[in-house]
Specification:
Nuclear Transport Factor 2, Chain: A; 162 residues; single chain; alpha+beta; 6 strands
Length: 162
């Protein structure tokens, strides 16, 4: 499989809400980074996608385009349309992704998007007023990672009960 096909497989799996298909594209030592979560590594990066797909999947719509890759790096553009769970507000997030590859898998994945624009859509007036600040970004990353910690603990508790 070429790296272009690998990226296409990742996003096609994402669009189908197929978490296992997505994670099969990632190297075990994946390094992921975006404005909302900051840097996540390994299983924690996979758990972030697992958490995002565990929410109300019926409303999440993923589209992707402009997939390009060579032997070492790649890129894609993608959009996520959904309602934010906490506020119910509609979000249309336009994301630019960059990739690095190792052992025929995605080793580094960085998503970039306009955090201020996202905050305005997701949070309304408070996002408009504060979404551009470093304080907001730190607070968002702290909350996103707390939510991820809670999700991981909840999933571990479920596994222990079985």
């Amino acid at each position: 499989m070429t790296n272009t096909e690998l990226i296409n497989q990742f996003y096609a799996s994402f669009a189908k809400k197929d978490i296992e298909g997505m994670l099969a594209c990632y190297h075990p030592l994946i390094e992921f980074e975006d404005p909302a979560f900051g840097k996540l590594e390994g299983k924690r990066a996979g758990d972030m996608w697992r958490m995002l797909l565990s929410n109300d999947k019926s409303e999440l719509e993923i589209t992707f385009s402009d997939v390009q890759a060579d032997d070492n790096t790649g890129s894609a553009n993608w959009t996520a349309d959904y309602s934010l769970g906490q506020t119910g507000r509609k979000v249309h997030n336009v994301i630019s992704a960059r990739f690095e590859f190792k052992d025929k898998r995605i080793y580094r994945h960085r998503d970039d998007f306009n955090l201020h624009k996202w905050a305005k859509q997701a949070l309304g007036m408070s996002g408009f007023l504060f979404g551009w600040t470093a304080f907001f970004k730190r607070k968002l990353q702290k909350r996103a990672n707390q939510n991820l910690d809670y999700f991981i603990q909840k999933e571990a508790a479920k596994s222990n009960r079985m």
